[in-house]
Amino acid sequence: MVSNFRSYIWDPVLIVCQIVLMQCIYYGFLGLWLAGVDSLVHSSRSLDQIFSYEVLGFATMQGRLSMMAFILNSLTCALGLWFFIRRGKQCLDFTVTVHFFHMIGCWIYNAHLPSALSWWLVNIACMALMAVIGEYLCMRTELRAIPVNTGPKSNL
């Protein structure tokens, strides 16, 4: 009997689908968190909040709330890693991939790499939070005790 538990077969279709899923989770929940923040301060919604590095800043209330939305999004994405990736060893890989594609998106949107220190600090902190919490959740699930003998014991 061959078990498919923890199969290590190279499956590029699965990996690409997981990357696309994590990107959808990242941008979907970031949009929801930003919409929640915007409703608190009655601000207008814009793609600048997601892709413009100038929005993230410590000087304004909108900038600080946007940073909070990014940090809350990293917690939500850590749950996505736990539900859909389910491997502690792959959490850092998928986290870096999600943030790398976000950086590419910001680069295209702004026509140059983000130059604000606050953008880099927020994204590095979000990467660390997402990877560490996602890995913790996955490792906790992976290390659960596996019941070996669940049948009735017989006296021989």
TrEMBL record:
GO terms for cellular component: cytosol; Golgi membrane; trans-Golgi network. It is a multi-pass membrane protein. Pfam families: SYS1. It is found in: Golgi apparatus membrane. The keyword Transmembrane helix applies. Belongs to the SYS1 family. Interacts with ARFRP1. This is Protein SYS1 homolog.
